[in-house]
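Marked as duplicate of an earlier ticket. Keeping the data here for the record.
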Amino acid sequence: MKRILLTTVCIICAISSFAQTYTLEEYETFALQNSKTVKISQERIQQAENLRQAAFTQFLPSFQAVGTYTWNQKNLSLISSDAMLPVGTKLANGSFGFTADQISNSWTVVNGVTMPVDANGNAFNPYTNPEKIQWKQYALLPKSSLTYDIQNVFVGGIGFMQPIFLGNKVRELYNISKSNEEIAKLANNNEEENLVLEVDQSYWTTVSLINKKKLAQKYVDLLNKLCKDVQAAKDQGVATKGDLLNVKVKLNEANLALTRATDGVELSKMSLFRVCGLDLNGNFGLADEDVSPENAKELEAGYDVNQAIDNRSEIKQLEELIKISKSNVNIARSRFMPNIVATGNYITTNPNSYNGYETKFGGMFTAGVAVTVPIFHFGDRTYTLRAAKHEFNIANYRIDQAKELINLQVTQANFNVREANKKLESALSNISAAEENLKLANISYKEGLISVTDLLGAQTAWVSAQSDKIDAGINARMTELYLRKTVGITNIKEGQRAKDDGVIKEGPVKMIKETAEKTVKSASEKTDKPAAEKTSRK
């Protein structure tokens, strides 16, 4: 068991010190998975999606329940004291009246009209002065009968409201939410494209620096060999001390350039790892380290502006903004239209008055339609509509402005690609001439036809040509990246933004764990096998 643990520790240490190599696509995947900016844009997509779903619910009826309890200090009484109601007769014409035997007033004749006499002996009209009538019979109306218990009042209800017509406001709000969701998706795509472009730039810049480091190492080796040859020639009296010093000066400069190139590679790798969310001090390699930057596929500079307009996410976002501004115009116009909603409710109260006054729950259903028609508000709706139309015009001007800018960008990117191709072709041609010149210089120096200074000049020209070739190659790749970004052609496809490869998702740590587990399992099987054989022999 101790042997297994020791083997596992050794394997983990060995794997940790070994440079895991990743391709450009894997670095892009690391960056997409670890970028906080991309995660924020993805959260905004989810936010916009939920807002769209919330807007859709406005088409559906809304249900609500309500319940209240109220304590009142006093009860409700309709009369202040007991009331005495006179007992009369229903006359032939249906009105309330009386007969002579139902009152105690005496009667008299005035101008041929029989009229009752009040307590002071004055005749009066009973219709205009009913308070002077002296009734013989009264009905008692007690105060307690008209006093109602409202000390504890319970009210409850449940109902719904269904919009029928709100001037198309609900539909336009839903359209706005859909456009906002699409804008969030396009913004996420743009963030991912920018991130991938940054990764590609860092990746190929690192490859370029690695090749320059190799070139610097070759130059140092070349000067070291030349320094030995000149030292031997000086010992034989063929070369001078000045020739040797010139070579050593060049060698020191080459060693300094090699140190700078080495530091540049480390810093460039750290920049790449930072963008990808990896450990800055991690020991990760690049799959294209041995591929020269100039080995790029032949570039094409004939992309059409219309193709860029169709692909660029910025144009698509502006198109969605135009839709939003159009919806805002329709919403402003809807303020001139009537609003119609249907309602339905069930209400219950305690106490209730549906069947007399009872201190128990009683309820009823209600249904109705409400219509609101705007009439006049001093031009508020008119000014709002005009403002929305101006915003719609601004959105159209912005998309026209963006198309003009994209036209300029595509034209410039096409020019840059053509120029990069010519520079690369020229650099490759200069390489052949510099190599031939260096070859002739070496032969001439061995034959004593040229000096050490001339040979150093040929070597310097060769190094410069090699460096120009690397710069031209990386420039060609960068212009390709910019052209693809300008035209809107990227390697990111919908549904393929993250691979299912476990090594890519989990990175080097998972690979180390899986390798260690396999090793432990294998070592355990080998350890258990002899024991099993011994048991079988016994």
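See parent ticket for discussion. The chain has two domains: 2-34+166-328+382-527, 83-141.
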